Amino acid sequence: MDLNSASSIVLQVLTQATSQDTAVLKPAEEQLKQWETQPGFYSVLLNIFTNHTLDVNVRWLAVLYFKNGIDRYWRRVAPHALSEEEKATLRAGLIANFNEPVNQIATQISVLIAKVARVDCPRQWPELIPTLVESVKVQDDLRQHRALLTFYHVTKTLASKRLAADRKLFYDLASGIYGFACSLWNHHTDTFLQQVCTGDEAAATNSLERTLLSLKASSLKDTYLYIFQGFLHAVFERLKQFLECSRSIRAENVCRDRLEKTIILFTKVLLDFLDQHPFSFTPLIQRSLEFAVSYVFTEAGEGIVFERFIVQCMNLIKMIVKNYAYKPSKNIEDSSPETLEAHKIKTEFFTYPTLMEICRRLVTHYFLLTKEELAMWEEDPEGFTVEETGGDSWKYSLRPCTEVLFIDIFHEYNQTLTPVLLEMVHSLQASTNMEDTSAILIKDAVYNAVGLAAYELFDSVDFDQWFKNQLLAELQVSHNRYKPIRRRVIWLIGQWISVKFKSDLRPVLYEAIRNLLQDQDLVVSKNNCLPVDDFEFRTDQFLPYLESMFTLLFQLLQEVTQCDTKMHVLHVLSCVIERVSMQVRPYVGCLVQYLPLLWKQSEEHNMLRCAILTTLIHLVQGLGADSKSLYPFLLPVIQLSTDVSQPPHVYLLEDGLELWLVTLENSPCLTPELLSIFQNMSALLELSSENFTNCFKIINAYIFLSSSEFLQMYAADLCQSFCEVLKDTTTDGQVQVLKVVENVLKVNPVLGPQMFQPLLPSIVRGIIDGERYPVVMSTYLGIMGRILLQNAKFFSLLLNQMACELGQELDQILGNMIEMWVDRMDNITQPERRKLSALALLSLLPSLNR
Questions:
Q1: Model confidence over 503-548: pLDDT tens digits?
Q2: pLDDT digits (tens, 9 = 90+) for 438-452
Q3: Which helix (H) or strand (E) holds 202?
Q4: 325 secondary structure, DSSP code
Q5: pLDDT at 148
Q6: On the chain, which terminus has fewer CB atoms closer than 10 Å, C or N?
Q7: Cα–Cα distance between 445 and 491 in angstroms, integer?
Q8: Are 806 and 813 in contact (CB under 8 A)?
Q9: Residue 733: exposed, middle, or buried by beta-carbon count in 10 A (0-12, 13-18, 19+)?
Q10: Is 461 in contact with 386 (CB distance < 8 Å)?
Q11: Beta strands in 260-323 (DSSP E)
Q12: Secondary structure of 33-92 as H, E, C letters
């Protein structure tokens, strides 16, 4: 491709490819796709995106095409790979200048240079790192920033390589550039701090940006463990400087956001190093704990710390406390010296005064509901109730983080902390002044702590007495200001009910819950923990409250508007239906009428639809044969949920299949509508083996409900699907298919063999060849035995067919089959199948003796 003549053509097509008119855009994209493999195309793209006079959108598109081309055609082994000559030219052009004025394009160029470096550096591109190092040293702000940005992306990419030879190369490279990267970081950090002191906001912002980039480049911790520890010690000092610096930077200052990001990056370096190299972190345990506890649990952090920093510090404490590398074995002699050393440091730090202060601060400071949360409770009660818990939320959100830290510390040091928490509980025995909001919030926080530590407090708290003497009375206090306690007490009972709660007290609890479901405050009523999903549940105790509970829960379901809230209420309703089973029938009419409307409203909310499917599953099980009245709504739901051509199937398929199966299991007969939705099955069997078990259960249910009608409609399609499945499936998959065929033969011995005839020759071959998997062989023999015993005429036709296919005498094939059958009788473990095989073989004797 001649560069001069090609540049104008490619530029024109790229310009067309940025058009919003599809008539112009599509042909341009097709043309660019054809040029991807043309020699010289990427040299033209390089000239275009480095020409700062051209339109930004055109340059942006050029750099993206270049970057994608690296992924596809840069490696030597790739089809249509770039020539070595062109690659050499491109490498030189990429690092000729670091003066890109547009930030987004500069980032893309840095990323694509890193992609090339991953393949070529340092063997084919030895000049890359030295060029970057020199460019970072220049005085020009723009060139320095762009070179530093590229330096970061290159080191990050090279550090991510995992092959041993690549690691060795990077270790060698890192040893040469690490000192430079650290000095660069220190230089930009000092510059930033000086500029902040002089009040030069614009210059400070630029320096902070460079500090952030150089910090990222310096903190590739998986490469140089020993020298990296020195860097981490420096991180603590810099952290203190930056935190003190934040005092003088107002929230509206442009530096503030980046300053906080830099502080968080400092802490992330510590957390990542601790996570990946716990023993190398041992010398830093003492300093880390002193630093984190000082800023989070003492006055030292007041006016400095911000939420994300507190979360990071708490995570640092949590990871040290819970780290299994720091926990000695029960037999001390089996523990490594490194573990014992780390454990000793932890033990010496976590003294009784330290633990007591941490526990008290967590409960009486961090567990308190904030003004913002209380305001949200009033303004958006549903939003308030959707708590961000579970998963990894503790890594990023303050409240889950504080609770997880409390749980881990209490578990680790429960003998020390149990008396501390019990003292806090005993101090709250007296009645609370309704006008004293702070006292109410303290009680809420202490009850939260007791709920989180329920398992650790099993032997220390007589929860039944506490419930009868105090908690039950607090549930009955209707004062509006006391609603945080009503909410917290019912949550607390939910935490303890599976730990320590007498069964005899449940009716009293059900009475209290029924009253709370009528509470005017949505947060209190929604956070009700109806204890139906635990081992101690007794239906007879719950039945007197079933009607009123079900009615109140249904009213709550209608009242709430957010998906998460509706899902929660539906989950409780599902549990109730599941527990009381058929006894729910008199009360579900209203729910049955409401679910179609809710399904329609939730068209854009697939997770809510999953909750509806789960509710329908329990509803069908509870209604039994009466669930037939739900079919006008139920069957279209199953149809949609199991149709792989519909996008929602990604979310709904698993629950949809279970609902389909439950519907069949409770159906008194096979209706035409039920029969019609089976057309979804062929595509499901092609999809994957994840749902095979439920699919085969559904097929079996159809067979047992009405084999003749079902097989006449779907036997051919089913047989074809089975043939495809058997070509590429596991042993377990083969057995499941064969068991369906065997069930067909059981219920329809005359038509069954004819309908699944295409499958049978492979079964005969499997028997003669001596199938090596005993379970598969046993199923083969079961199918053949059933055909031989129930449909001898078809068996004879099958043998004739096999004789023609194999070019052997019929008697020879029969003899080989009988010989292998007798030889493998021990593969058959089920008594009924052994009996079937024995009867089948005996049935041959009269014909052999004629």
A1: 888 999 989 888 888 887 778 777 666 677 677 788 888 899 889 9
A2: 999 999 999 999 999
A3: helix 201-218
A4: G
A5: 83
A6: C
A7: 12
A8: yes
A9: middle
A10: no
A11: none
A12: HHHCCCCCHHHHHHHHHCCCCCCHHHHHHHHHHHHHHHHHHCCCCCCCCCCHHHHHHHHH
Cβ contacts of residue 512 below 8 Å, gap of 6+? 472, 475, 476, 490
Cα(122)–Cα(106) distance, rounded to whole angstroms? 22
CB-CB neighbours of 740 under 10 Å: 19
User: By the 8 A CB rule, do 802 and 814 touch?
Assistant: no
On whether the CB atoms of residues 711 and 751 are closer than 8 A, the answer is yes
Q: What is the dihedral of CA 447, 451, 454, 459, to 10 degrees?
A: 20
**DSSP letter assigned to residue 652:** H
Helix H segments across 581-691? 589-601, 606-623, 631-641, 649-665, 672-676, 681-687
**pLDDT, tens digit, for every residue of 772-807?**
888 889 989 999 999 998 888 898 898 898 888 888
pLDDT above 90: residue 308: yes
| Confidence label for 702 from pLDDT (cuts 50, 70 and 90) | very high
Q: What is the mean pLDDT of residues 650-675?
A: 93
Residue 494 amino acid letter: G
DSSP for 519-555, please give it: -S-HHHHHT-----SSTT--HHHHHHHHHHHHHHHHH
The answer to whether 570 and 599 have CB atoms below 8 angstroms apart is: no
- For residue 476, how many other CB atoms are within 10 A of its CB? 12
Q: What is the pTM of this model?
A: 0.78
Residue type, 780: Y
The residue among 64, 133, 135, 67 whose CA lies nearest residue 96 is: 135
Q: What share of the chain is helix, strand, coil (3-state, %, to 5)?
A: 75, 0, 25
Of 220 and 678, more confident: 678
Q: How far apart (Å, rounded) are the C-alpha atoms in residues 146 and 151?
A: 8
CA distances from 188 to 69, 217, 270, 475, 793 (A): 35, 13, 20, 59, 91
Rounded to an integer, what is the distance from CA 491 to the centroid of its chain?
A: 26
Instruction: Round to the nearest angstrom and report the end-to-end CA distance of the chain.
Output: 86
| Burial zone of 237 (CB within 10 Å; 0-12 exposed, 13-18 middle, 19+ buried) | exposed
The number of angstroms, rounded, from the C-alpha of 563 to the middle of its chain's C-alpha atoms is 20
Look at residue 6 in the predicted model and tell me its pLDDT. Answer: 73
- Count other Cβ atoms within 10 Å, centred on residue 600: 8
CA atoms 408, 413, 417, 419: torsion sign: positive
Torsion angle of alpha carbons 656, 659, 660, 666, nearest 10°?
180
Task: Give me 708's structure tokens.
Answer: 């003749």
> What per-residue confidence (pLDDT) applies to 519?
82
Which pLDDT score is estimated for 136? 80
3-state class (DSSP) for residue 492: helix
Q: State the Cα–Cα distance between residues 89 and 812, nearest whole angstrom.
A: 74
DSSP state, 585?
G
| Cα–Cα dist 71/59, whole Å | 19
Tokens of 273: 């190093």
Among 475-479, 688-692, 769-773, name the most confident range.
475-479
Is the predicted pLDDT of residue 218 greater than 70, yes or no? no
Closest CA to 367 of 318, 404, 393: 404
**Given a cut of 80, is residue 164 above it in pLDDT?**
no
pLDDT score recorded for residue 342: 92
Residue 389 has pLDDT above 70, yes or no: no
Please state the φ and ψ torsions of residue 682, each to the nearest 5 degrees: -55, -45
Going by C-alpha positions, the residue among 409, 405, 436 that lies closest to residue 420 is 409
- What secondary structure letter does DSSP report for 369? P
User: 172 or 154, which is more confident?
Assistant: 154
How far is Cα 485 from Cα 434, in angstroms, rounded to an integer? 11
Q: How many residues does the chain have?
A: 850
